[in-house]
Amino acid sequence: MGLDIVLFDEKKVRVGIIELPNSLHEAIFKGTSNWSSYMQLRKMKDYYKTNVRLNQSELFCFVEDLKQVRLFINSTYHTNLDSLVQSLSSANVKAIHVGGD
Questions:
Q1: Which end of the chain has less neighbouring CB within 10 Å, N or C?
Q2: What's the predicted TM-score (pTM) here?
Q3: Tens-of-pLDDT digits for all 101 residues of the chain?
């Protein structure tokens, strides 16, 4: 089971929920050490203790971190990562909450 990402609009109303699949999490954090260079991405490392809220500016940085780390992960995971980035980049998404197990 992956990390749940709850999407919120500017009024803090939930507008959706998506998943960061466990396989993608492992590709980012176990398949490479480059993740440690990215401030917002580092917050997601501990799969079992993740309880992170990101506001709009932090969310923007997180999306940029994901785009950058794409260069270092196995291309098998690019489609999942691109889908995640697209969901997080939606115009009505202004904040997220990421929760682990």
A1: N
A2: 0.91
A3: 688 999 999 999 999 999 999 999 999 998 888 888 899 988 888 766 778 999 999 999 999 999 999 999 999 999 999 999 999 999 999 999 999 76
